[in-house]
Amino acid sequence: MELTLKFSAAPAVLFLETQIPIRAVKDLNQYLDARHNKGAESFANKLVGQISHGEQLKIDHKDPLIDPFTKIVANMSQQYLSQFCNTIGVETLKRLPHMHSLWSVHSYERDYNPVHDHGTDTIMGLSFTTWTKIPKQIADKDDYNSSKLVESSGIADGFLQFHFGQTSSRGLEELRPPFSRMIKPEVGKLIMFPSWCQHCVYPFEGEGERRTVAGNLNMFPENSI
User: Read out DSSP for 164-214?
Assistant: First the structure.
């Protein structure tokens, strides 16, 4: 007997990843080098990051050095929305992106971000993060492998982790897909995700700065503004 089989998967979350141009990385660093440890406006009162050795700074998304990056994430938001609607089988929603907030995180040894999510003015919100500087001890690490998470291996030091459901050590045997994702930070890598998706950043040891640029986008209905 021949049977026709049709498999379907129910997506829990959609991530969009790209590599931004090296020019954009240099422009972001030029903007931030002129402000880091120079008394620039702090954004720490808006963020949960436990950044006691570094700082968290507000970024002006209209600055000439930042504007090209702003355009990149705005374009990505449209690609994200189109793919999300296609994935769940609905007509593409018409939304206009607007920068809600943009900031930098200058992390050093033992700085970290506890589990949190992001908020926007609109119900639909997209968040993003990229890295413009990474300490060598993080850059030299292998990609995350949960089987190596033993004997204080430090396999996740400095990594970003997303949480979008309950995950257990028996998940594979129970045929449960993973509901978390570990991301190794890399210079120029940019991740876009829904603002509700909880995530955290693990601390690292040793010298060097882990420099992150992150932000949130409001997604206004097309006819509302």
Answer: -S---TTTTTTTPPP-EEEE---BTEEEEEETT-EEEE----SSS-EEEEE
- CB distance 59 to 102 below 8 Å: yes
The neighbouring-strand residues paired with 95 are 221
3-state SS, residue 21: coil
How big is the chain by its Cα radius of gyration, in Å? Answer: 19
Output b/e per residue, 183-194; b: 16+ Cβ within 10 A: bbbebbbbbbbb
Instruction: For residues 28 and 24, give the distance between their C-alpha atoms in angstroms, rounded to a whole number.
Output: 6
Lowest mean pLDDT among 25-29, 144-148, 195-199, 221-225: 144-148
Residue 85 sits at φ, ψ, to 5 deg, of -65, -40
Sheet containing 189-194: order of strands: 16-19, 189-194, 125-133, 210-221, 95-107, 55-58
Q: Rounded CA gap, 207 and 141, in Å?
A: 15
Question: CA-to-CA distance for 55 and 43, rounded, in angstroms?
Answer: 8
Average pLDDT, the chain: 94
Q: Estimate the crossing angle of helix 22-33 against helix 67-88, to 10 degrees.
A: 130
Residue 150 above 70 pLDDT?
Answer: no
For residue 101, the cross-strand partners are 216
Residue 91 is given by DSSP the state P
Whole-angstrom CA distances from 139 to 17, 38, 157, 185 are: 18, 27, 11, 7
The whole-angstrom separation of Cα 126 and Cα 106 is 22
